[in-house]
């Protein structure tokens, strides 16, 4: 009888000890999990930074070979009814990112939407490549654009400057590409030309002439009189699952963004097709679209976005950056900054 009681007591103590151990493990996991998640995000952000450095090197090699940075978007009137994209800064820098085979498959005499291949998956503008994908954005296979029109997406966009309220990058009329600009500094009319009413507001033509990447024009580095370390080249855009143009690699409306709003702003993007989320709010202009796009820098990194400058340096810019400072670093000859106040 005494032996049986001892066994029961021993078993009871073992069970209590087991519960205590489980509780301790649970507490430790709850304490360590945020640290593990933070470490993983730090690794992803580092990889994202490395991708931007590779893109920066590709841009510098392109500039060295051609005498200027690539055009932000290359457009030409192919039919009387529309202006078609013949590629973007992403398309022409492929050889400098070890994607020469993909570059050779592109017929730059034809709009991307008329490229021919045996199957849709082999179309040049439907092919992903890792250098243009930020690992923090999530599973790219879930957000891949599945429409034959716009193709694959990535997470990096070129700086087209900034625009006034309700103004964006105009891409559909070859005569209006650079309204109000001469490629230097701020345009005389920062709101452009009124061209359509949308959701009760007056929308204006694009202002894309005072960032280093423009429609049908790229600048030479010596034109960046504000200084290459004071001028943004590329930042991030956030992909959203579904029919969303943002990040489309070979369509300028997806890989050119503006500094009109600070990073990860709650103010909505405007583009032809998009899916609005809390992290990437937007308004689709599909019903009355006239080639108008206004994207802000956005990322899945907590607190800000990675930014590549024209001197090939990469910095993390917080969401709380002063709005005027954010606008200032978007221009290449705006004379807003000096080394003493940057």
UniProtKB/TrEMBL annotation:
Coiled-coil regions listed: none
Taxonomic superkingdom: Bacteria
Pfam families: N_methyl (PF07963), SBP_bac_10 (PF07596)
Domain DUF1559: from-to ranges: 37-323
Keywords of this entry: Membrane, Transmembrane, Transmembrane helix
SUPFAM superfamilies per UniProt: Pili subunits
Residue ranges crossing the lipid bilayer per the database entry: 12-36
UniProt protein name: DUF1559 domain-containing protein
């Amino acid at each position: 009888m005494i032996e049986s009681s001892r066994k029961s007591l021993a078993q009871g103590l073992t069970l209590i000890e087991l519960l205590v151990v489980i509780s301790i493990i649970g507490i430790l996991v709850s304490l360590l999990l945020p640290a593990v998640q933070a470490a993983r995000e730090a690794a992803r952000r580092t990889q994202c930074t490395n991708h931007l450095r590779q893109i920066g090197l590709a841009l510098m090699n392109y500039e060295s070979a051609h005498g200027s940075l690539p055009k932000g978007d290359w457009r030409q009137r192919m039919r009387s009814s529309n202006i078609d994209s013949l590629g973007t800064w992403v398309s022409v820098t492929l050889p400098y990112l070890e994607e020469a085979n993909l570059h050779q498959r592109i017929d730059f005499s034809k709009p991307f939407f008329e490229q021919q291949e045996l199957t849709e998956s082999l179309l040049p503008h439907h092919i992903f490549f890792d250098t243009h994908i930020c690992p923090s954005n999530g599973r790219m296979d879930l957000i891949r654009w599945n429409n034959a029109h716009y193709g694959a997406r990535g997470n990096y966009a070129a700086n087209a400057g900034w625009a006034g309220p309700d103004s964006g990058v105009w891409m559909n009329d070859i005569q209006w590409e650079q309204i109000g600009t001469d490629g230097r500094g701020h345009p005389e009319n920062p709101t452009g030309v009124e061209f359509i009413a949308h959701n009760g507001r007056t929308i204006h033509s694009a202002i894309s002439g005072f960032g280093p990447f423009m429609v049908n024009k790229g600048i030479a580095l010596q034109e960046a009189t504000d200084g290459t370390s004071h001028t943004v080249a590329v930042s991030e855009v956030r992909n959203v699952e579904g029919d969303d143009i943002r990040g489309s690699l070979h369509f300028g409306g997806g890989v050119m963004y503006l500094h009109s709003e600070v990073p990860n702003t709650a103010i909505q993007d405007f583009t032809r097709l998009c899916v609005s989320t809390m992290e990437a709010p937007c308004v689709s202009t599909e019903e009355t679209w006239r080639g108008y796009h206004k994207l802000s820098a956005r990322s899945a990194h907590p607190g800000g976005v990675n930014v590549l400058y024209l001197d090939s340096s990469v910095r993390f810019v917080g969401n709380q950056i002063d709005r005027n400072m954010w606008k200032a670093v978007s221009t290449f000859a705006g004379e807003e900054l000096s080394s003493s106040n940057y």
